[in-house]
Specification:
Residues 57-78 are annotated as: Disordered. Residues 47-100 form the Peptidoglycan binding-like domain. Pfam families: PG_binding_1 (PF01471). By secondary structure, the protein is mostly helical. It has 2 domains: 1-38, no CATH class; 47-105, Muramoyl-pentapeptide Carboxypeptidase, domain 1 (Orthogonal Bundle). Helices cover 55% and strands 0% of the residues. The chain is built from 5 helices and no strands. It is elongated and about 45 Å long. The relative contact order is 0.11.
Length: 107
C-alpha cells in the first residue's frame, strides 16, 4: 500500500478505511486494485492467543514489548519481520495459521 496507508491511518485510525481509500487511489492512478478476494474465513485471535503470539515472537528475538494480548504496532511490526523470514506476505495480520506456524517453529 505504501506510505499513504500510514498517512491515512493518522487521519482515521481504521485499517478498513485506510485500505479502502488507498485501493481507490491506486485504481485512480491506473493500478489494478484488488487482485484476489478478501478472505472470509479468518477469525480474530483471542487475547490469550495474541499473548502466545507475542511470547513466540519475543522468543525469536522479534521485540513486541511486554506480552499483553493486544496486537498493537509493535506486535504487527514483529509479525511482519517473522512473515518475511518465512516467505509469507508481510502484512502483520495475526491469524491462527501464523500462530500455529510460530508455535511449531519455536519448538
Amino acid at each position: 500500500m505504501g506510505n499513504n496507508f500510514r498517512t491515512l491511518l493518522k487521519y482515521n485510525n481504521s485499517n478498513n478505511y485506510a485500505l479502502a481509500v488507498a485501493l481507490i487511489a491506486q485504481q485512480i492512478d491506473g493500478g489494478t486494485g484488488l487482485t484476489s478476494s478478501w478472505p472470509r474465513d479468518l477469525e480474530p485471535l483471542s487475547r490469550s492467543e495474541v499473548r502466545a503470539l507475542q511470547e513466540a515472537l519475543n522468543s525469536k528475538g522479534l521485540d513486541t514489548g511486554a506480552p499483553d494480548g493486544v496486537a498493537g504496532p509493535a506486535t504487527r511490526k514483529g509479525l511482519r519481520e517473522f512473515q518475511k523470514t518465512v516467505g509469507l506476505p508481510a502484512d502483520g495480520y495475526p491469524t491462527k495459521e501464523i500462530l500455529k506456524n510460530l508455535l511449531e517453529t519455536s519448538r
